[in-house]
Amino acid sequence: MAEDLIDIRMTIEGFTSELVKRGVPKEKLIVGLSAEAMGMHLMVGERRETEIGAPSSPFDHVKRRNMPGVVSQSDVCLSLEKNSTISTFHPKIGVPYLIDGFEFIAYDDVHSIQLKTIWTSMNGYGGIALFGVEMDNVDGECPKREPYPLLKTIVGAQICEVCAKQKIRDDQNSSSPLASSVNSCTESSFQVLCGYRLAKEDGTEPLEANMIPYQKCTEIVVEEAIWNADGELRYEESAQDSLRDLVQFHTQHQNNSKLVSAIRCNMTEQEFINFIGDNERFVEKILSHMNLFGYSGIEFRCKDVITAATNSAFSSMLENLQSNFKTAKSSNECKKTVGIRIPAHMNNLKSSYNISALNKLHSIVIDSFPSPSNISELLNPLFGVGLGGEFVTLDSTIKNWIIEGVDPRKIVFSIPAYGIWQQLKNTSNHDLGEPVEDAIDLMTQELLYKKFKQLGIADRRFVYEAVGAYATTIDDEFLSYETPETVGYKVKYAIRENLGGVAIDSLNQEDFNNVGQTGPFPLLEAIDLNKCFV
């Protein structure tokens, strides 16, 4: 926020940094923002060429009901409604300004307040103070019926140093070596689902079972068993050795993380209906699969076959499966769980899912996997502020689902360990929203760190208002990714919203070899650090 200014100490970033250098603890600093705007009279001939730093007079003010030079949020709104007003948001310093006639108005808006609030939270400062709250469109004058826009933005964007609380299930400890491979039925109210892709013979993603940080995960979600039209659940032949090693290691080293099988449906809608309609055979196949590999739960990934036409049959299947899990459960083993993964763009859940059936599941995971785009875009944005246009974000999806009746405690959102790569078409502009080639590639954290060490990185920056990060290169490449800072904020957001937890996709794409020299599994470490327990 301090770029393009002569003295960076005159910015929030520069001033707070100076205080911290002088020994003031971050948690003792309260960042002050204001709903009061500032008006000045421009002393220039052509106002359309006016930028920050142009000559102005603080003495010749536009007359308003407030004190001379004092501009309220309602006044700003009324000026913006004029066709003649020129308004600009300066992205490098994170503030807007407008020119109305010969009046220059510097102010904060929802965008800049969101940016500053998230920056404050992400950097561990003590909090936010909003001065001049009486200027925050108190009466809902302009915009109409929208009082306190800045205060509401702070409330929605600020996170605090809160911890997830641990809870204990009533189930007894497990004594079966394969049933769940855990030594206790203790369960956290905040789940950390760690995706694990079985290593292939070609050596890609070579994360061995003995390298997995089990103690930082409540579940290891094994990707993926393929559920074919014949009703059989199969893994690729090249993954068999890796699967055997995982099950053996997990069984021999008793720990509290559970093994969960991710099941992907590979069939048509009609084949799906036919198979789940045979309840006895379906349950037998699922239980056999779980018992064979010692799984404690399953996670359905069947977005292509769960539709309005299959909704009823799928809901009945879920109810029947969970009922059979209870019946088959012995007195000395933990309860088996059922979860589901649903794409983030599925805003109208009721069109394909029974909400009551979803709320009976162990977890409902929001899958934020990116799709090909013709513009450079942020990976996994939490908010849409500052992105322009209508983007699907985690926050918008979560709020839509809760409005539809989904229990927030069941919602788990995914955090990609991978980054996305896009090739920019414009060699002169490397910002968000610029044209790119159609292709989109995924990059592991390890490859991203190697890329950052190259001299070709032109720019790296946080998009605080959306909670994301990206980098560009001199070869016109656009990279977007998660960082420990963005992950930490999202974990605190999940706790604040009383959500069920987060899922990391996947451990194989983390920097498990510590190439970035910040410690292995930096994103998972950020999750573990920020969830804590009380």
Automatic annotation (TrEMBL):
A cellular component term, taken from the record's GO annotations: extracellular region
GH18 domain span: 1-161, 190-534
Gene3D superfamilies: 3.10.50.10, Glycosidases (3.20.20.80)
Pfam families linked to this entry: Glyco_hydro_18 (PF00704)
SUPFAM superfamilies xrefs: (Trans)glycosidases
One Gene Ontology term from the biological process aspect of the record: chitin catabolic process
GO molecular function annotation: chitin binding; chitinase activity
PANTHER family in the cross-refs: CHITINASE, CHITINASE 12-RELATED
Protein name (record): GH18 domain-containing protein
UniProt source species: Acrobeloides nanus
High-level lineage: Eukaryota, Metazoa, Ecdysozoa, Nematoda, Chromadorea
